[in-house]
Structures are given as C-alpha cells and as structure tokens.
Amino acid sequence: MLQARFVSALVLLPLVVVLVIVGGWVYALAVILFLTIGGHEYVGAMRAGGYHPYHRLLMLTIVLIGLGQAAGFLPGLLAPALTAFLVVAMLAMLASYSDGDHLPTINYGITVTGALYIGWLGGHIIAIRQLPDGLYWTLIAALCTGFADVGAYLVGRAVGRHPMAPIVSPSKTWEGYLGGAITAAGCGALVGAFSAASGAAITPAEGALLGLVAGIVSPAGDLAMSTFKRMVKIKNFSNLIPGHGGMLDRLDSVLVGVTVCYYVIVYLLRD
Residue 72: which pLDDT band, with cuts at 50, 70 and 90? Predict the structure, then answer.
C-alpha cells in the first residue's frame, strides 16, 4: 500500500505542478475535470448507501461554477446563482418525492452539500491561481496541504498515541495532526523563499503562515468526507488512484485548505 501511494504521488505531483505553471484555461479545465470526477464518485458512494442525490444537477453545478470562475464573472453572479441553484434543487426534491422518493429532504441535503463542497469550494482552486502571483500562491497552498497529509501520516505512525477522531478516522492522532501542521509550515517557508527568489512579492514568513493555516484547517475536509464514507460504509470513494483511493479522497483536504488559504491571502496578506 505504501509503495503504491509513493508511486502514484510521483506521477501526480509533477502533473499538478505543470498544470499550475501553465495556468489559464488549461489549468481551469483540468480542475473542473478533477472536480467532476470527484462529484461522480460522491454520487456513486451515496447511492451505494441507499441515497439518491440529484446526479445531473450536482454535476452541472460543479461545471458551471468552475467555468464561471475561470471566465471571471462568478463573483458578480454568486448571489443570484446560489439562489437559482437552491430553487432548482427544491423543485428536484418535489419531483422526486412525487415519484416515490422516501428520503426527499435527505437527498436534497446531500445534493446541496456535494454541490457546495465540491463545486463552490473547488472554484477557489481556480480563483487562487487568478490572484496576483497566483502561480506561487497556488503552489504554496496546494503543496502545503499535501505535505500536511504526509507529515501527519509519518508522525502519526511514529509517535501517535492520542486519537483525534476515533469514530470517524481511528488512525488519525493529535500528534500526527501537530506534525502535519509543522510540516506544512516548513513547506510553506521553503516555497515562499523560492517564490521570493523568483521575483514574487511573497516572503518566506508569509509562505510559512499560509502553510500553517493549510496544515491546521485541511484535515477538516478529510474528516468531513470520512464521515460520509462511514455513513455509507465504504473505505474510499473509488479505486481510481492506486494507494490513494478516488479523486475525492485526494481532493477532500485540498478543497478546504486551498479555500481558506485563498481568503487568508485576499484579506490578510494582500489587504
């Protein structure tokens, strides 16, 4: 398992870095593709658990949010777009109930949660690349989120003694969580220093702060999706990536970590 995780990471990491460097529509469309794969996995997992989220509506919402952010007009349309989505989802709930759905409100909630978690949070993966020095901010946020997971795994295996969420994820420990946050901060400092040397208006201290934030908040995404997996009694959302599970198993922490990092950059570091 560990060997498979390592080989998959060797393949995926360069691909992600190249996409971030290229940027533009190539990057945005790749992100949208990854998000739609995650959305499809989410729907499949919920169906395996006996629930019936509105597949087409959820997928369409993920794609439209991604395209809207890539085109640059999503922020101005956010309020009416969110309202329209909720109304359409309500109509879908009524229609499904009329067709015999015995869990209409639960399926409605699962659909809304998936669309906002994967689609809305996922839009920030595109938005952060569009910021000034977005190439470097994206690398810091994404790499630090990934290294937080690696640090937590290694430290947790070595010295983990106190379970962090024993019901949801028994293998996660507070020692691992702290190790992940420190690892992410160190990664942020290194990438921040590289960014500054490359001419970006980013300091190693800012990189370390952003890495620390990513390391602190990103496990919430992992634990949230682990709760869903526990609910439907599955280990992974799919087996798409050897040693890692599905696309959503890889994105769950990134979605939260990058989104929070985006707002830290916009409101604190670039105020």
Answer: confident
Tens of pLDDT, residues 6-33: 656 667 788 889 999 999 999 999 999 9
Closest CA to 210 of 253, 254, 264: 264
Q: Assess contact for 180 and 219: CB atoms under 8 A.
A: yes
Please tell me whether residue 129 adopts helix, strand or coil conformation: helix
- Does residue 4 have a pLDDT over 60? no
Give CA–CA dist 121/145, Å, rounded: 15
Distance CA 57, CA 8 (A): 31
CB-count burial class (<10 Å; 0-12, 13-18, 19+) for 45? buried
pLDDT value of residue 130: 95
3-state DSSP assignment of residue 230: helix
pLDDT-derived band of residue 169, with 50, 70 and 90 as boundaries? confident
Is residue 212 a contact partner of residue 189, using CB atoms and an 8 Å limit? no
d(CA 22, CA 120) in angstroms, rounded, equals 23
State the DSSP string of 10-41. Answer: HHHHHHHHHHHHH-HHHHHHHHHHHHHHHHHH
Domain residue limits at 165: 2-269
Q: Is 166 helix (H, G, I), strand (E, B) or coil?
A: coil
Strand partners, 163: 173
**What is the structure's pLDDT at 79?**
75
Q: Which two tokens stand for residue 214?
A: 């990513």
User: Helices 104-114 & 74-98, crossing angle to 10 degrees?
Assistant: 160
